[in-house]
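Let us practice reading a record.
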Amino acid sequence: MDSDSLTDPGLIKAQITRVIKDFSQYLFNQKQIGNTFFDLSEESNTLINNWGTKSPSQNFFFQGHENASVFIIDSETQFFRGESGKLLIKILKAMKLSSDSIFICNADDLKSVHEKINVISPKIIITLGTKAGQSLLKIKSPLEQFRGRFHKHNGILVMPTFHPSLLLKQPEYKRQVWEDMKLVMENAGLKDDA
C-alpha cells in the first residue's frame, strides 16, 4: 500500500467497505452451513444487518466554528479541495473571511443542516449552487431566478448564489457572485474596501 492510499479518504473508504462486505458474506455463509458459534455483540450484529443502508448522518459533512456568523451550505462535499475549493477560498479572502472563520456543510442531509443552523444561529447563510439553495429554501425554480437577493430561513438572511465549480466553467458569472457577496458583507457587518 503506497502513502497516497493511506491518506486518500476515497480509497480508505473503498478498502473498509470491501473488508466489511467480505466479513459479512463470511458470517452469512457460516450461518448457512450451521456454524452459529460466533458470539457477536449487539452493536456488531446491528452493523452487519444494516450494512448497505445509509443513515442520514453518513451523508452530512461539515467543518468550522460553531460560533461563526457566516454559515455556508455547499451543494457539494469537497469544500476547500480542488480548483473550486481554491476559488471559494479566494472569494472568502476577498470578503475578509478565512476558511476557519466560517461554518460550512453540505446539503445532503437537510435535517442535520437545520440542526446545525439552530445550534449556530448565524447572522447570514450563503447557499452555494442549485441543490443547496433549492433544498434550504424549498424552491423548485432554477437558481438564476432566486439568487442575488436575500431570502429568510427561520428569520436568518439567506443569500443563494452560484457554486464556485460553475464559475470555473462559466467565468462570466463571477461578477454576479461578487455582487451577491458584497450584499452578504454589507448585511453581516464585514467591511468592503472595493
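A brief commentary: The CA atoms of residues 167 and 194 lie 20 Å apart.
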